[in-house]
Amino acid sequence: MRDSDTPNATFDYARLLAVVGIIWFHAKAPGGLIGYSGLAFFLMLLSFNAWHQIIHVRAQFHRAPAWTRYATARAQRLLLPWLVASSFYGGFKILEIANGSPWASEFSSEMWITGTAQHLWFLPFAFMTCVVIWPLARWSRDQDAPVQMVLSFVFAGLAMLAIRIAGANDLPVPFAQWAYAVPSVFLGLSIALTGYKKALLQGILALFVLTALALDLTSGLFEIAIAGCAMLLCLQFQLPRTTLSAQCGRMSLWIYLIHPAIMSLIVRGAGLPEGTVALAILTTVISVAIVAVWETLKIVQIRSYGLKS
User: Fold this and answer.
1) Of 5, 88, 100, 270, which has the most beta carbons under 10 Å away?
2) pLDDT band at 303; cut points 50, 70, 90
3) How far apart are CA 95 and CA 30, in angstroms?
């Protein structure tokens, strides 16, 4: 395998595929449960990347402390899009209220945490995850390989415990989403500590799935298993970073953010019902097209600015 610092374009393409799977699930199209493993993949990749980013952040003279620079970068990457998307969906809700919908049906107290659309819960949760794992990741980087291997198995065990807790409780929004997310986060951390050893990666994933099945911990296990296999494949078959792959990686977040609005407009305007493949495909095509045009315009603007400079 290539060194962990080398950009891996396979993850960029996998991100785009994962968000298509999430669209498929939200459209309630056939096979949507398989598509929902895309969320588990995003969560594993989130903690996996955060762990390695934290390890490689260095203290630099005459610059802000390492933690401050890391947290600021994560906030720009996660909280800024959350605020933009919350304003966007909040505007739609205000229009609904202007058309006669009760305020209570459009806005609720948990939106202070999730944002103005339920799927936006992922972004503040992702930011909190990145911040919380900082001290443990900084501590682990100075430990030898046996300690890191033990920690990898501990995280896998915590993932199973989290599945048990999530499956045993009927939680309100956003705690239900958080409970679903935590097992994948722990498993992503476990994978990050394997040192990219093929046998160890496969062994931990197989042991995790088999043990969870033996203990009847099946809540979300199907999606987690698929996401874990996708992580393994991405680490095994690494592609060099290109302009196209980088654009696919950037697009995935914004496609995730806008697709519920696109789907709602299609259902209302075109009359396509939920549960159809046509709705999933049309939502995917339009969402990808809008974000691709936006990304292309940004690239053109940046190049134009560079030429003028």
Assistant:
1) 88
2) low
3) 32
Nearest to 129 by CA among 228, 219, 37, 43: 43
What average pLDDT does range 36-50 have in this prediction? 96
- Break the chain down into helix, strand, coil percent, rounded to 5: 75, 0, 25
Q: Is the separation of the CB atoms in 28 and 275 below 8 Å?
A: yes
The mean pLDDT of 35-56, rounded to a whole number, is 95
How many other CB atoms are found less than 10 A from the CB of residue 151? 18
Amino acid at position 161, single letter? L
In this structure, which amino acid lies at residue 230?
A: A
Contact 192, 228 (CB under 8 A): no
Alpha helix stretches (DSSP H) within the chain: 9-26, 32-35, 37-56, 66-74, 80-98, 103-106, 111-114, 122-132, 134-140, 145-167, 175-192, 198-214, 221-236, 243-269, 277-308
Residue 141 structure tokens: 């980087």
Q: How far is CA 189 from the centre of its chain?
A: 14
pLDDT of 5: 43
Rounded to an integer, the average pLDDT of 178-207 is 92
Lowest mean pLDDT among 70-74, 263-267, 292-296: 292-296
**Could you tell me the pLDDT band of residue 305, with boundaries at 50, 70 and 90?**
low
Predicted confidence (pLDDT) at residue 6 exceeds the cutoff of 60? no
Question: Over 6-32, what HEC string results?
Answer: CCCHHHHHHHHHHHHHHHHHHCCCCCH
Does the N-terminal peptide bond of residue 174 adopt cis geometry, omega within 30 degrees of 0?
yes
Q: How many residues does the chain have?
A: 309
pLDDT at 19 over 80: yes
Distance between CA atoms of 198 and 93, rounded to whole angstroms? Answer: 49
Radius of gyration (C-alpha) of the chain in whole angstroms: 20
The residue assigned the tokens 């959350």 is 82
